[in-house]
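Lecture notes, unit on protein representations.

Consider one protein chain, 197 amino acids long.
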Amino acid sequence: MKLRYAIPMTLVISTLVCHAATLRSVDVTEERGRFRLVADTYLDAPPAAISDVLLDFEDNRYSRISEIYKESDYLAPDGDGTPIVYTRVEGCLLLFCRSMTRVERLEVVTPTLIRSSVVPERSDFEYSAAEWTLEAEGTGTRVVYTMEMEPKFWLPPFVGPWFLKRTLLRGAPVAVERIEELARESALATTTADAGR
């Protein structure tokens, strides 16, 4: 049985410096215990700067993006040299709170395509694969995030998709704004450094 949850929306988030982070759509589906999430976002920052933010796991720096990230870091690389990253997130549904650990192999395919795949024996997921696609659009970037995951822990069918959707929508607007803000800071720092040479 396949359940589909679509949330068409446009959330424009403005800050004092007129950022234009827009979460265009989020789609969550579930089939036989495996969840698929696709989020389409526009950020007013260049692709390279957004990539820098998305790849900055060191010293719990992912917590700058969202408060659900309690820990993040790079671990020792895999035997073939592939970078390994660690994240731990926490989320609550009424009185049920869950901490979820994910250890992933990280692959930067191109400057605008990042992929990750979970190491199941070191994670709370039987399966998880994610992909960030960054495409220049106007003065900013269209970011499409796709993730498939199958948790090791049990979630009731009526709670699973709703829990994921609710958790995402509660944190997504702030996370999108934070990624944009951090990317703009990164781009400004790079421009300033280049000008000083």
